[in-house]
């Protein structure tokens, strides 16, 4: 555990910014130091007090984080958080439903940030990553969708949040930038109007009369989809036990959806 923590603030003429620096002795009796730049002296002093307080509480992880590279953090996050979902009473209690996808995204992030120290990752670095990914074609040589890049950024944010919770980082650089914009994504197709619904159901009714054996089951599925907004996969996995006829409720089990917890 760290000991003999001292700190001070000053002005860096070359960077034209104020800074704080504090020193501590690690578990190997080696002197270490932490230095951060800020726009104002008052901010530097405030952050110095916060840094020393946090270091005193979780010093071992803080100084580990000072030397931690992104690929090391990604490995820790992967081992701790990225595994198949675990359910209890049809509710997810741990893990991820799409953990394979997250593993792939972590691989992409590791290729980009790799041996970068996690403490050196700035909001501008995240913005540059977003720009590069948007300008990199997919493996099928098509334009990369903003929604795809947003998901990668979501994994990066979660990984850095993990670092903050585990005291490897003082703060997540995502807190100082807004790079994940859902408004930029392609909007989902609009819902049907009442007139369009009536026409669709009338067409299904007509086809049912013409060929009862092949599509008689489709109309109830379409009605359920329109009224509930359920996905096709959720509808196809319904069991009679999922339907509460007395209260007119359909229960979607957590194992069959990517939205509900």
How is this structure best described in words?
The protein has 261 residues and is of the alpha+beta class. The chain has three domains: 6-58, no CATH class; 70-176, no CATH class; 194-256, no CATH class. 47% of the residues lie in helices and 15% in strands. It contains nine helices and seven strands. The strands form three sheets. It has a three-stranded antiparallel β-sheet with strand order 1-2-3, with helices on one face. Strands 4-5 form a two-stranded antiparallel ribbon. The chain is elongated. The mean pLDDT is 82.
How is the topology of this model organized?
Blueprint: E1 3-12, E2 17-25, E3 31-38, H1 41-67, H2 70-81, E4 86-88, E5 91-94, H3 99-113, H4 123-134, H5 146-165, H6 194-210, H7 212-215, H8 218-228, H9 232-236, E6 243-244, E7 249-250
Antiparallel strand pairs: 1-2, 2-3, 4-5, 6-7
What are the defining features of this structure?
alpha+beta; 3 domains; three-stranded antiparallel β-sheet; two-stranded antiparallel ribbon; 7 strands
